[in-house]
Amino acid sequence: MRQSLTILHVDRTGFGANGRIPHHARLRFGMVSVPCRIGRSGVVHGKREGDGGTPAGTMRAVRGFWRRDRHLPPITGIPLRPIRKGDGWCEVPGDRNYNRLVRKPYAASHEDMMREDHLYDIVLELDWNRVPRRQGRGSAIFFHLTRENLGPTAGCIAVEKRRIGFILAKLSPKTRIIVR
Question: What is the CATH topology of the domain spanning 4-179?
Answer without folding.
Answer: L,D-transpeptidase catalytic domain-like (2.40.440)
